[in-house]
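Translate structure to sequence.
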C-alpha cells in the first residue's frame, strides 16, 4: 500500500513538473532575446531605442528623472471618491496626461511635464505600443540605469484614455500630510508606508519649477544613485535655500545645491510616517523591495492586473549599489531632527572634506 501511494505521488509530481514547464516555457524573439511571453518581444526594440536616444546611452540622468515623474503623474489621476459622485474620476495609468496634454499639463501640479511628454511622443509614434504602456515602460527602463535601483515590474495591455483625468488628483509639495495621505488612499488604498516607499523616487529626482531660478536642483546629494541618502538628508536640520527664498512648497535644505520639498520635510516628521521614513536609512534592501512593490501597484491603477501581460523580464538588471549610507561632509548625527519616537537614528559615518555642495542636474 505504501509503495502504491508513493508511486501515485511520484506520478502526480511528474505531471505537475511537465505542466509547469509548459507554462514557463520561454520564447526566443527575432533579436535573440528570450522572454516568458511572445507578446513581450515587441518591447525589445523599444527598449533599445529609448536607452540610446532618450536616456543618452543608458544614463541615470534628467530624462530618467522626468520619465519616472511622468509615470506617477499619469497613474495617480484616478479618484473613486469623485467617481462616486457620478462624475468621471479618471482612468489611472491610462496615458491621459499625454493624450490630453493640452488639458492636463495646464493643471498646476503638472507644471513642466510637457517637456518629457514631448520628448517621448516620437518614440510612441514609431513603435506599436499604447501611450499608457509606454509611459510606464519608459519609467521602469529609465530607473534600471540607476545604480542601486530595483528591477521594476512592467505590464502591457492597458487601454489608452478617452477622457482627461480630473484636476487636483496629483498631490502638490505644499499640501498637508493629511491631504497627501488621503489622496493616496483614495487613488489606490495606499497605506502611509506605501506612500513613503513611493517617495523613494525622489532619490533620483530633481526640481525644475519649485524654484525656477535653479532648474535641475536635486533632492539629495547623490541624484545619480538610487540610494538611501534622500531619507537621511530630509531628516537633517535645514539651514539654507539653494536659490531664492519664499517659494511655495519649499523649505530650507541642509546642503548647498539641494532643494527640499515642504511635503517631504513634513512626512519625514509626522508620527504616521516618521518611523517608516527612518527605516529606510542605511537599509538599501528594504528601499529596493518597498519601492518595487509600491511602483507595481501604482502602475496598474485603473486596471485589473489579471487582464495585463507581465513583461517584467524585459527590464535590464540595474547596476549594483554604488554608495554607502552617510552624512554629507560637514554634517553629523547632531544635525538630525529626530522624529521617530520608537527607534534611535542609525549611526552613520560622515564624508570627509569640506561641507558638501551639490551640483545641480543640467536641464535637458
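Result:
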Amino acid at each position: 500500500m505504501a509503495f502504491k501511494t508513493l508511486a501515485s505521488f511520484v506520478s502526480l509530481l511528474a505531471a505537475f513538473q511537465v505542466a509547469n514547464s509548459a507554462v514557463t516555457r520561454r520564447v526566443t524573439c527575432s533579436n535573440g532575446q528570450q522572454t516568458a511571453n511572445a507578446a513581450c518581444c515587441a518591447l525589445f526594440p523599444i527598449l533599445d531605442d529609448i536607452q540610446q536616444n532618450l536616456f543618452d546611452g543608458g544614463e541615470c540622468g534628467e530624462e530618467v528623472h522626468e520619465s519616472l515623474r511622468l509615470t506617477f503623474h499619469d497613474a495617480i489621476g484616478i479618484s473613486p471618491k469623485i467617481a462616486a459622485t457620478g462624475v468621471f474620476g479618471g482612468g489611472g495609468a491610462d496615458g491621459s496626461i499625454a493624450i490630453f496634454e493640452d488639458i492636463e499639463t495646464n493643471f498646476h501640479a503638472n507644471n513642466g511635464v510637457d517637456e518629457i511628454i514631448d520628448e517621448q511622443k516620437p518614440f510612441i509614434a514609431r513603435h506599436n505600443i499604447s501611450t499608457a504602456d509606454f509611459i510606464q515602460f519608459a519609467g521602469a527602463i529609465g530607473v534600471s540605469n540607476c545604480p542601486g535601483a530595483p528591477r521594476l515590474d512592467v505590464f502591457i495591455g492597458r487601454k489608452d484614455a478617452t477622457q482627461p483625468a480630473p484636476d487636483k488628483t496629483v498631490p502638490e509639495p505644499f499640501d498637508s500630510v493629511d491631504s497627501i495621505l488621503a489622496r493616496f488612499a483614495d487613488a489606490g488604498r495606499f497605506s502611509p508606508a506605501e506612500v513613503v516607499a513611493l517617495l523613494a523616487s525622489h532619490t533620483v529626482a530633481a526640481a525644475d519649477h519649485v524654484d525656477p531660478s535653479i532648474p535641475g536642483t536635486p533632492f539629495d546629494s547623490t541624484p545619480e544613485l538610487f540610494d538611501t541618502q534622500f531619507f537621511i538628508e530630509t531628516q537633517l536640520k535645514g539651514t539654507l535655500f539653494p536659490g531664492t527664498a519664499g517659494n511655495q512648497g519649499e523649505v530650507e535644505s541642509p546642503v548647498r545645491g539641494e532643494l527640499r520639498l515642504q511635503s517631504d520635510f513634513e512626512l519625514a516628521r509626522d508620527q504616521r510616517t516618521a518611523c517608516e521614513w527612518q527605516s529606510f536609512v542605511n537599509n538599501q534592501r528594504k528601499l529596493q523591495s518597498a519601492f518595487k512593490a509600491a511602483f507595481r501597484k501604482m502602475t496598474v491603477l485603473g486596471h485589473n492586473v489579471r487582464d495585463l501581460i507581465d513583461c517584467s523580464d524585459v527590464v535590464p538588471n540595474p547596476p549594483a549599489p554604488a554608495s554607502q549610507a552617510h552624512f554629507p561632509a560637514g554634517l553629523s548625527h547632531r544635525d538630525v531632527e529626530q522624529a521617530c519616537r520608537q527607534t534611535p537614528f542609525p549611526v552613520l559615518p560622515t564624508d570627509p572634506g569640506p561641507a558638501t555642495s551639490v551640483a545641480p542636474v543640467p536641464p535637458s
